[in-house]
Amino acid sequence: MSIDDLAKLRDQASEKLAEKVAARQLELAAEMEKLAAFGGGKKAKAIVPKKDLKDVKEALKPQLQEASKPQATKAA
Fold first, then answer.
1. Residue 59 maps to a domain
2. Which of 17-21, 35-39, 72-76 has the weakest average pLDDT?
3. What is the DSSP letter of 69?
4. Planar angle of CA 17, 21, 24, nearest 5 degrees
5. Can you give the pLDDT at residue 22?
């Protein structure tokens, strides 16, 4: 291929790519209009972090101590 043929091919490829980009931009603009009907842009609520295992153990300590005490058994 000659230099002129390569330059022409490059120009054709650039034009075709520009056409595809323009068409895709129109598609995306139409999609954005559809999504705007739903009132988008709202953020999801923040997730509350889970408590550390240490905190849970500390909170349950009194209950665990009660459970570990021997139960008085009735003599039959």
1. yes
2. 72-76
3. S
4. 140
5. 96
Question: How far is the C-alpha of 69 from the C-alpha of 62, rounded, in Å?
Answer: 11
Q: Which amino acid belongs to residue 56? A: V
24's CB contacts (< 8 A; 6+ apart) are: none
Indicate the number of domains in the chain: 1
pTM: 0.46
* C-alpha to C-alpha distance for 20 and 30, rounded to whole angstroms: 15
Does residue 73 sit within a domain?
Answer: no
- What is the distance between the alpha carbons of residues 27 and 68, in angstroms, rounded to a whole number? 68
- Which range of residues forms the domain containing residue 47? 3-68
Residue 69 dihedral angles phi and psi, to the nearest 5°: -70, 140
Angle among Cα 75, 69, 71 to the nearest 5 degrees reads: 20
**pLDDT tens track for 44-71:** 777 766 667 677 777 777 776 777 776 6
